[in-house]
Amino acid sequence: MGIQLKVQALLLIKKWRFLLFLITFPSLVLMLLLPFMSLAITESRIPIAWADQDKTDFSKLVLKRISEHERLKVIPVTEMEGGKMVNTGEVEAAFIIEKGFEKQLKTGEADPVITWLRSDSSGLDGFAKEKIAAEAMRLMMNSKAAEFVEEYNSEFTWDKAFEFADQYWEPEPLFRMDFVWVGEGREAKETTLKPEIKGILSFFLIYAMGVGVALKRQLFADKESGLYQRISQFTGHIHFYDASSVLLHITVSFIVMLPGFVFLLFYYDFSFATYTGFVYKTLIILAGFQLFLLILSKLIHKRRLYFAISFGILCAFFLFVH
């Protein structure tokens, strides 16, 4: 097998211009499309109207925090403008911050302090409502904690105690619930990917699989030249040839994926476990696809039919992941 691996590697190296193009092409495409992808993601944020009638530090703080969320597009308006924008469909919902918002949060009263306007066509505003409610609850809990500390510890002022309590919400609250779906006796925790991350991974994966298909040209060239049959006659089998081919093609396909992994590593905050999980899954998919292509090449001997079926499967896979 070592000899076959060396021979096929040398054949690939002879086509170094072709290999260089295959490896650099997706990176160039990514650099060209990235500005447009970022613009599309920005424009896809959930639009909501925000009418602040309280105009206090608390209402301004909630506005600041939800405006920084990557999935929300907050538009400051008046109450009347917010209602009109909901009716015309310009926004998913309008949130009216009533007078007394800060006062009620500080006292812990449960009277309605936010009016939620939506239409029958609204479908994504529930996410915004949850985020606003979470920020309001954060302020109320901090206020109650500051009130308690100020009452029993004269060394702390209300503002200092409030600031001290607020720091425990960053980078995430001390108490959280992680919901895990359990099915068939196995736990499967769902990982939600951002749209741009999913798009980048899908692009590189589909392209890498396409590279694996393109590299099979050498297999059909060897069959047409008679080399494939001579190897079989000389050695009694072609297992080493097939294994070397699959190994090399998996390696090249994975190298094609590397720019995508490097991009994600530098531009997105993934945990080590999540990142390595992506790498392992990619290797498994590429290896499985190469084995499938090998089996397909044993069943279909016509070059054009083989590539037509292979790229048809790639198109179906592309539609599936999207």
Biggest sheet: strand arrangement? 2-1-3-4
Give me the count of strands: 6
| Mean pLDDT reading | 78
Number of domains: 2
Q: What is the H/E order?
A: HHEHEHEHEHHEEHHHHHH
| Broad shape | elongated
Helix content: 55-70%
List segments where confidence is low: pLDDT < 50 over at least 5 consecutive residues. 179-192
- Euclidean distance between termini CA atoms: 39 Å
- Helix-strand category: alpha/beta
Short structural description:
With 322 residues, the chain is an alpha/beta fold. Helices cover 68% and strands 9% of the residues.
Summary tags:
two-stranded antiparallel ribbon, alpha/beta, 322 residues, 2 domains
What would you say this structure looks like, in words?
This protein has two domains: 2-40 and 194-321, no CATH class; 46-176, D-Maltodextrin-Binding Protein, domain 2 (3-Layer(aba) Sandwich), CATH 3.40.190. 68% of the residues lie in helices and 9% in strands. The chain is an alpha/beta fold and 322 residues long. The strands form two sheets. Strands 2-1-3-4 form a four-stranded mixed sheet, sandwiched between helices. It has a two-stranded antiparallel ribbon with strand order 5-6. Mean pLDDT is 78; it is low at 179-192. The protein is elongated and about 90 Å long.
